[in-house]
């Protein structure tokens, strides 16, 4: 999945597959996780949040199933 670099102290890059509703995040530690069944609206709000890390911690990490990729 293609990821775009983001300006964040938590994340290095973020990608999204709208067809399969998969959000892929690369942390500054270079670990990569995929989160499943994430609606496009959640992805859009996440990408426009004042703090990607805070939004992720409150609205994505505790809600969606995930897989550790790297």
Automatic annotation (TrEMBL):
Superkingdom of the source species: Bacteria
Every KTSC domain range: 7-64
Entry-linked Pfam families: KTSC
Name the record gives this protein: KTSC domain-containing protein
Organism: Ohtaekwangia koreensis
């Amino acid at each position: 999945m293609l990821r775009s670099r983001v300006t964040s102290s938590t994340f290095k890059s973020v990608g999204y597959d709208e067809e399969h509703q998969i959000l892929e995040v690369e942390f500054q530690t270079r670990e990569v996780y995929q989160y499943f069944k994430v609606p496009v609206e959640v992805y859009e709000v996440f990408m426009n949040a004042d703090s990607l890390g805070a939004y992720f911690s409150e609205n994505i990490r505790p809600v969606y199933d995930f897989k550790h990729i790297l």
